[in-house]
Design a protein that fits this description.
344 residues; alpha/beta; Rossmann fold; 2 domains; 7-stranded parallel beta sheet; 11 helices; 36% helix; 22% strand
């Protein structure tokens, strides 16, 4: 059993989270706390495995709790729950720097709170199942000959944990992740993924070269366009260009933009993957990768919170493989190896 302590100043949120977690047979809610002072007392008393921690609370907030726990020899895993504001985006990033293990966004609308159950449970399980990775000593990355583009939305972050933790440190390809997320939070997502991946992970910067063995997370608020970069050897490589073009499918960054631009630059050396997500973003991009001779995959429906994005790709008859989540990292590695043999 995974022992969980819920910390939030809202009685409504405490009640909802308790109800959501009680439905999982592997999780036991051992208590609740109404502020940071109460939380520290309950952590010492109840010895939970995981704490869900609100950031803004009266008397003592979540950041102060994390500052106190930094000095303890042992502490529970901390999952920060953040509201969707720019202030909370900054505080979430600070919480990760203070030792929080992961974060999750609270829905804006109260009726949608119950919709987070599956993602919440996955994140709590991942905290205990996925250890931090010991990074290799700093290695010199070279411009990538192959690119892996990954698209996801609702339900995607815990799936990205599983996928990235399975990729080898010497993957001879660049990886670009486009995850629908509010502005300000993709830097925190990249920092979180960097802890559990053997590859280096960070948020995109305008002008970044795509490098083998490195992962870039598309910055929220701008489209991630992959542009052509010719090297002195005559090979074609890729560079990140941030675009403020209008949103596509009401989102920016759009998966379609990243996938389509990657296909134009890398052609058959492009591998695309669609994970969980609502809507149709990624369908046209997957088709562009297929038309360019690349390899296309979507995650199996049973592993996805929402199957809209994957279904949009399947409807275009352009998907090479439907893959269970636990096998996607292996299939990416295999596909990259095949590209290396056939095209590089």
């Amino acid at each position: 059993m995974i022992r969980v302590l819920i910390v939030d100043d809202s009685l409504f949120i405490r009640t909802i989270l308790r109800d959501l977690l009680k439905s999982d047979p592997e999780i036991e809610v051992v208590g609740t706390a109404v502020n940071g002072i109460d939380a520290l007392e309950k952590i010492a008393e109840l010895n939970p495995d995981v704490v869900t921690l609100d950031i803004e609370m009266p008397r003592m907030g979540g950041l102060e709790v994390l500052e106190t726990l930094q000095w303890q020899a042992t502490r529970p895993k901390i999952l920060v729950l953040s509201t969707l504001t720019s202030r909370n985006a900054d505080m979430t990033h600070q919480a990760l720097r203070l030792g929080a293990d992961d974060f999750m966004l609270k829905p804006k609308d109260i009726p949608n709170v119950r919709g987070i159950e599956r993602e919440l449970v996955q994140k709590i399980r991942n905290l205990l199942r996925l250890p931090r990775v010991q990074k290799q000593t700093e290695i010199a990355h070279k411009d990538a000959e192959t690119v892996v583009v990954i698209g996801s939305s609702a339900g995607g972050p815990p799936m990205l944990d599983v996928l990235l933790s399975g990729l080898p440190p010497d993957l001879p390809a660049a990886v670009v992740i486009t995850q629908h997320m509010p502005e300000g939070f993709t830097a925190s997502l990249a920092e979180r993924l960097n802890r559990i991946s053997a590859l280096s992970v960070r948020e995109t910067r305008n002008g970044d070269n795509l490098q083998a063995g490195a992962v870039l997370v598309s910055k929220a608020g701008v489209h991630t366009v992959i542009s052509r970069l010719a090297s002195s050897t005559g090979r074609t490589h890729g560079r990140i260009v941030h675009s403020t073009a209008p949103p596509i499918h009401a989102v920016r960054p759009a998966v379609d933009t990243t996938f389509t631009s990657a296909a134009h630059v890398f052609g058959p050396r492009t591998i695309s993957v669609i994970l969980s997500g609502m809507g149709s973003d990624g369908g046209e991009g997957t088709l562009a990768v297929k038309k360019a001779g690349g390899t296309t995959m979507v995650c199996a429906e049973e592993d996805c919170l929402v199957y809209g994005m994957a279904r949009a790709a399947l409807a275009r008859d352009c998907v090479d493989q439907v893959v269970p989540l636990e096998n996607i990292a292996r299939e990416i590695t295999r596909a990259v190896g095949q590209v290396e043999v056939d095209h590089v």
